[in-house]
Structures are given as structure tokens and as C-alpha cells.
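Weekly sync, protein design subgroup
Attendees: M.S., D.O., the rotation student, P.L. (late)

Item 1: inverse folding check
M.S. brought a backbone from last month's batch and wanted to see whether the design step gives back something sensible before we order anything. D.O. pointed out we never logged the input encoding, so this time it goes straight into the notes. C-alpha cells as presented (351 positions):
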């Protein structure tokens, strides 16, 4: 701290889920995809990675073109980033300042608060309802740049398209950022609304549904003007934010969409199986549209459940805030690991 700017002395940085090396765990703590990157995509990238002695194409044209076809938007309506965390960072930089604050739910992706503090942006947190759903009336004319994860993390709850549209339409002077990191696990994307509203930015990632957390590839979709503003941030910090290997992998993955779709169906099926099984043994399970479930068991704390599972070689995540401390968030794994998890949770509650 000796040399750290006074600006950052009170900053609490984002704490990633643990990645312990001491033993093999069944890792259900960081919402990674249980399936590896497709072999076809890896082979494509091995053949097609652009020469590494040259800088990558800062506009990622090939990748952008595939994405614009997939989402029925134009190339000027997309920006590629180093994971979607970087897109969110650009959005805070571009659309908030000392006058224009941020608005977000009290329970949501922890990084929003970190970015707001990093950039010295005032923010208002709107409490979720008791059942952890978002009341969209609370966001009508919210008076700041809105950040909403849909499905929300770590609850897994989802807003419908008409509710998202109501929020976007009622905040014409503010950008509304809809973080769709988990959209491919069963909810409806609001991307089509970008042609109707110039204040909507949709954030997406290859990390969850496309098994690419380690590759770091995210993207944003919005009207041309919003994307231009975000590019200003990108070209002022890191124009080569997507490296050549990752760009080639992204292209390979988009050429093998069947594989992604098959994996998403498996995750959804395992999620539904896990949700039913946990309800049957007495857990409260919040209905989830993500690749995770948020659950509690009366009489046990989130930390207690976390520690018991860790002893048994399974990692999950708990969040020690007042409203979430009784819950654990469990990432949906392979069928085999889901079955092991259910057996261990049965053991824990028996004792
Ligand atoms: C995982 C996650 C992200 C960011 O993931 P990247 O790996 O940076 O793309 C963004 N938002 C939410 C809600 C997430 O859960």
C-alpha cells in the first residue's frame, strides 16, 4: 500500500472462487462448464491461429461476422472483449461518472460493485423481493446506468422479455446493461430489442455455455452509437484485448454450435434433476435458469454446508452477506458429479 494511490486504498477487489491445488476436488464453485472445448474447435484453432509474431486484428472481423450472423445484428453493433468482465468494465467507464451513478440489485454479480468503487461511481442497490425476484417497477426511471444480470447471479431467477423491455423503455436517458452470461441455459435473450432501443447494451460471454472460461472471450451487442462509445474505452486501454489464439478458438466454437447446444441441453437436464432431488430431501431451491442452483437447508448455514462438502471433496460457493448467508450456490456439473453431490448432501443432512 506504500505506493498505492489514495484513490484505491479502500477498494475491495473481486474475490474469484477458489481454485485449490492441494487435492482433486469436484469443482462446482465457479460456474464453469463441465464439458471441455469441442475437439473440432481446438483443431480449427490449431490450424487457423493467425501468425503470433503479428498483433491480432483489433476489430476481430472474422469472429464479429460470425456473431453478427448468429444474432441478426450488424458488425457495427458488436464489440469483442477479454471476457465479459472487460465489457462490463468498459460500460462502467463509458456510461457512469460522478454525476451519473449506477443502479443494481442488492444481490447480484459481485463485480458490479467492485467496478463502481474502482471508478469512483456512486451506486444505488435496490433490494430484491423476499423470494429473490426482481420487481421491474423498482427500475422504472431509475436515474442512473442500470446493471442487471438476467438470469441473475447467484439466484438464477429470470426476468421475461416484456419486463426487460419495460425497464429499457422507461429509462430513455440512461443505458441499461443486461448481462446475459447465463442466457443459453433456457431463458430468452433481449438482443432483438437493440434495434428498437438505443439505450440497451447486452453483455454475453463464451465462458459459461461455450466452455471457454480459460480462453477469456466476451462480447457486447448494442446500437452503433453505444458500441462506438465502448470502442473508445477499448482503444484507450487495450486495443488488442482479444488475442489471436482466443479469436481462432472463438471462430472454431461458432462453427460447431451443435456441440454447444448439446452441452447446454445436458446442463439443463442435470439442473432439473438436481433441483428435484434436492427438493425431495428438504432443500429450498430457487428455480434457476443458469448453470447453477442457489439452495438452502433449514438449520444449516451456507458456510456450514460449504465446509461439509469441502471435507468430502466437493467445492461450492457461499456468500456471506446478511440475505444470502444461509445459501450455497452449486454449479451444475456432469451427470456423474451431480449424482455424487446428491449422495453427499443426503449424508450431510442425515448427520
Ligand atoms: C461469469 C460471469 C460474468 C463474466 O464472465 P467472463 O468470464 O468475464 O466472461 C459476467 N457476469 C456474470 C453474471 C457472470 O456470472
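Designed sequence read out in the meeting:
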Amino acid at each position: 500500500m506504500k505506493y498505492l494511490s489514495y484513490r484505491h486504498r479502500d477498494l475491495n477487489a473481486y474475490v474469484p472462487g477458489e481454485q485449490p491445488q492441494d487435492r482433486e476436488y469436484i469443482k462446482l464453485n465457479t460456474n464453469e462448464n463441465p464439458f471441455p472445448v469441442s475437439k473440432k474447435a481446438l483443431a480449427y484453432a490449431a490450424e487457423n491461429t493467425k501468425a503470433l509474431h503479428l498483433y491480432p486484428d483489433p476489430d476481430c472481423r472474422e469472429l464479429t461476422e460470425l456473431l453478427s450472423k448468429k444474432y441478426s445484428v450488424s458488425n457495427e453493433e458488436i464489440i469483442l472483449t477479454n471476457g465479459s468482465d472487460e465489457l462490463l468494465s468498459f460500460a462502467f467507464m463509458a456510461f457512469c461518472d460522478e454525476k451519473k451513478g449506477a443502479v443494481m440489485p442488492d444481490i447480484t454479480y459481485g463485480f458490479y460493485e467492485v467496478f463502481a468503487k474502482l471508478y469512483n461511481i456512486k451506486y444505488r442497490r435496490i433490494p430484491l423481493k423476499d423470494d429473490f425476484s426482481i420487481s421491474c417497477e423498482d427500475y422504472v426511471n431509475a436515474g442512473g446506468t442500470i446493471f442487471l444480470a438476467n438470469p441473475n447471479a447467484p439466484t438464477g431467477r429470470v426476468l421475461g422479455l416484456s419486463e426487460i423491455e419495460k425497464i429499457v423503455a422507461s429509462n430513455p436517458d440512461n443505458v441499461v446493461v443486461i448481462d446475459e452470461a447465463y442466457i443459453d441455459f433456457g431463458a430468452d435473450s433481449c438482443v432483438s430489442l437493440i434495434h428498437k432501443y438505443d439505450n440497451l447494451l447486452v453483455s454475453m460471454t463464451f465462458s459459461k455455455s461455450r466452455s471457454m472460461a480459460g480462453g477469456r472471450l466476451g462480447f457486447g451487442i448494442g446500437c452503433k452509437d453505444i458500441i462506438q462509445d465502448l470502442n473508445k474505452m477499448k482503444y484507450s486501454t487495450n486495443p488488442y484485448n482479444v488475442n489471436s489464439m482466443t479469436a481462432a478458438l472463438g471462430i472454431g466454437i461458432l462453427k460447431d454450435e451443435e456441440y454447444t447446444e448439446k452441452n447446454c441441453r445436458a446442463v439443463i437436464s442435470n439442473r432439473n434433476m438436481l433441483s428435484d432431488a434436492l427438493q425431495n430431501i428438504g432443500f429450498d431451491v430457487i428455480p434457476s435458469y443458469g448453470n447453477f442452483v442457489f439452495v438452502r437447508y433449514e438449520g444449516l448455514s451456507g458456510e456450514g454446508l460449504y465446509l461439509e462438502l469441502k471435507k468430502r471433496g466437493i467445492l461450492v460457493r457461499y456468500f456471506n452477506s446478511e440475505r444470502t448467508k444461509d445459501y450455497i450456490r452449486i454449479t451444475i456439473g456432469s451427470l456423474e458429479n451431480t449424482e455424487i453431490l446428491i449422495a453427499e448432501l443426503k449424508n450431510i443432512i442425515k448427520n
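Discussion: The two ends are 46 Å apart (CA to CA). The chain has a mean pLDDT of 97.
Action: P.L. to compare against the previous round before Friday.
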